[in-house]
Amino acid sequence: MTKQLTAPFRYDHVGSFLRPKALKEARTKFQNNEITYDELKKVEDEEIIRLIAKEKEAGVLAITDGEFRRSWWHFDFLGGLEGMEYYEKERGLDFHNLETRKEGVRVVGKIDFGSHPFLDHFKFIREHAGDSTVKFTIPSPNMLHARADKNPEIYPDEKELVEDTIKAYQKAIQAFYDAGCRYLQLDDTSWASLFSEESRAKLVAEGKDPQQFLNTLQYVINETTKNKPADMTITMHICRGNYKSTFFSSGGYNYAAEVIFGGLNVDGLFLEFDDERSGSFEVLKHVNRPDLKIVLGLITSKFGELENKEAIKARIQEAAKYVSLNQLCLSPQCGFSSTEDGNILEEENQWQKLALVKEIAEEIWG
């Protein structure tokens, strides 16, 4: 078995890391008007440079900034689009036995991509990563429709909102490419609305047809990526929610399997397969492209206890019954800190998890 030298890598990760104490303290001081933005940025810069060094020391092949400049994995980017606004809501999202912080985004004008601050965020990583591959993560365009509060006065026809979102993301992909990005990941929890009978029933209660919803998700991704440069890798992470070690949705991939595994114009899929909520590997039989990389998220990022290495290796071999082992990769099932709050584990645990991913991948693929 040959080593995977292009992204996604045999041992990879979703992107976010636990925020270090100094960064948490600086963000709190900034929110309390005790330090300036420039003083906060200085701490962010220092901690990102430290993180990059740690990633390299740990043998991480896809270097990220840990999403250290973000409060949320999605709202910061979406709120930075033209026509969008970040704001405080009356209620947060309902996760399993937990409500999130009361923050969100809303449509306040026509959607477009302009001088987005995330471009500078990428350039900073690129500057300090040396010869390493930089992976940059942004929310999928589907997340704008899944999480943004709409404005019927601005978009009386939601189809127009869909098309403007696609055009904005096409501009974003090109802008990141022009800045030097060759490995971009789209993070997407919207697919999970289709994974259980209960969640599909909620869609129906909202006046949405699950099959049409599925078709729209597919259309948005494929239109967004159709003009991507040939030497740019775009992957998608499909998630069921990750907030303080809890989750938003459950259910296997079955309902959407044919589209996810056989109908999306992406180069790789990061998939949660770390517990029984994710369903079986049988859905992988729908993979119909030999160039599509399937990144198995078999190592949980939600808790610090290390998985049994041999058990994970056995699960990889089980997945290989449905798709070529040469198409498979390994990673944690999600980021360690999808929001600045972080999951319930220690910084040492996240590095142990990544070391385990690397060790298993090298034993499986060489």
UniProtKB/TrEMBL annotation:
A GO term for molecular function: zinc ion binding
Keywords in alphabetical order: Methyltransferase, Transferase
Sequence ranges assigned to domain Cobalamin-independent methionine synthase MetE C-terminal/archaeal in this UniProt record: 14-339
Enzyme Commission no: 2.1.1.14
Pfam families: Meth_synt_2
Single biological process term from Gene Ontology: methionine biosynthetic process
Record-linked InterPro entries: Met_Synth_C/arc, UROD/MetE-like_sf
Keyword Methyltransferase part of the UniProt annotation: yes
NCBIfam families: PRK06520.1
Protein name: 5-methyltetrahydropteroyltriglutamate--homocysteine S-methyltransferase
Lineage start: Bacteria, Bacillati, Bacillota, Bacilli, Bacillales
